Amino acid sequence: MNGKHTDVIIVGGGPVGLFLACLLLQKGVSCVILEQREEPSRHTRSLGIHPPALERLAEVGIAEELIERAVQISEGRAFSGPTVLGSMTFESCPPPYRFILALPQFITEAILEKRLKELDDSALLRGATVTEVFDSGGHVIVRAVLGEQEVRYRSTYVVGCDGFNSQVRRSANIEFPGGKYTDTYVMGDFEDRSNLGSQAGIFLTKEGVVESIPLPGSVRRWVAKTKTLLEDASADTLAKIIQKRTGIQVRSQTCSMISAFSVYHHLATELARGRILLAGDAAHVVSPIGGQGMNLGWLGAWTLSTALAGAIQNSGSAKSLFDSYSESQRRAAITVRKRSEFNMWMAREGPLLPLKRTLVKWTLDSRVRSYFAKMFTMRGIQSQ
Ligand SMILES: Cc1cc2nc3c(=O)[nH]c(=O)nc-3n(C[C@H](O)[C@H](O)[C@H](O)COP(=O)(O)OP(=O)(O)OC[C@H]3O[C@@H](n4cnc5c(N)ncnc54)[C@H](O)[C@@H]3O)c2cc1C
To answer: Residue 352's pLDDT band (boundaries 50, 70, 90)?
Structure first.
């Protein structure tokens, strides 16, 4: 594509960039993704695909394959140690998707990439690291390193889908205020020997929460709140935490992934500056507790694809379309951040455990249950 003009250059071929490209191509907008990685990622970090995002993913024709490959979680159970406090089903959620899908992020990305290639085989350029983006007023120049070569591309608009450390955001001088929470976690994937089946489990304990999410292939993700960042945590360490807090035994020899992590929140001060736009983690980072960051990015990409198609058709409307995307997506990000902060508060260790247990029991026994079911399935966050 060197030298060729494209409507939109997307920097970053993670889940958000790939989805945005599929949407744009379906709308007749030409686009290309510049992705620094030579090979697809093998990260499992994100799992949950929520109904509102699945409805959008269906629009690019991949919902069926996602459903086929994933585990459908239609119920979550809350425990206090091994005692069941109650359960929440997603049956009251609007059809057709009354469940949350659990699927490792690299499989989701592979499905998106396959669909993108069906739409345009040349729309993903791997091995291209973007070093600078310059808005000339009439178009955007993107500089990148491709192999040993420095290359320049030109497009009408550029979208930074290049994650937390976004180069596009830096080039556009957009600030990214936020911070690090004091909370830390350790997570790992093990062979599933629980009796939870396709249910998710939340174990409230005085040492902190343990979350448990089923994955395809009889695997289960366990996430435990820790007092400090256990950088050198082994499968054995996590297995012991799980056993102590939940009574469930996992076999550390079956661990396929272990990772300790800190959590952050950031929100770009604007998601549109001239011809440069931001989406996904480049625009907002929320705590993964509650599993909504990627979904938030997809919902934003959907709104942005409509704004971009409108701006290509009528350049006079670009500013108001982009401002409206920026405002609505920033609002959505703030709502998701608040929800994740509530989840983290619930997850913390300490003396408030009896109060939290009562709150959970009351919630699961009462009519506000459907409100929380909506909150956990990401209903009501997108203002369009
Ligand atoms: C432990 C953990 C668990 C999570 N679980 C969930 C969950 O269950 N549900 C959920 O919704 N979210 C979850 N998230 C969040 C989710 O992983 C992210 O929100 C999501 O990956 C963001 O997607 P993205 O495409 O915006 O950015 P990324 O996934 O970060 O992708 C950015 C892409 O840009 C490329 N790139 C970067 N810089 C350049 C450059 N200069 N030039 C070219 N390419 C570049 C990168 O190589 C990468 O491919 C979780 C996060 C963590 C850490």
So the answer is: confident
Single pTM value for the model: 0.95
- Taking residue 298's Cβ as centre, other Cβ atoms within 10 Å add up to 26
Ligand 1 close to Cβ of residue 145 (< 6 A): no
Domain tally, the chain: 1
CA 82 to chain centre: 30
- Ligand 1 atom 6: the closest Cα is on which residue? 46
Is residue 381 in contact with ligand 1, taking CB distance under 6 Å? no
Give residue 126's domain range: 5-71+102-178+266-348
Which residue's alpha carbon is nearest to atom 13 within ligand 1?
46
Residue 3 pLDDT: 56
- Of all atoms in ligand 1, which is nearest to the CA of residue 15? 25
CATH number at residue 114: 3.50.50.60
252 inside domain: no
Question: Which of the pair, 4 or 109, is modelled with greater confidence?
Answer: 109
Say how many Å lie between the CA of residue 113 and the centre of ligand 1. 15
Alpha helices in the chain (DSSP H): 15-26, 51-58, 63-69, 105-119, 167-171, 235-246, 293-313, 318-347, 353-365, 369-376
Q: Quick check: is 333 in a domain? A: yes
Quote the ligand 1 centre to 162 CA distance (angstroms).
Answer: 8
- The two structure tokens encoding residue 175: 């600030």
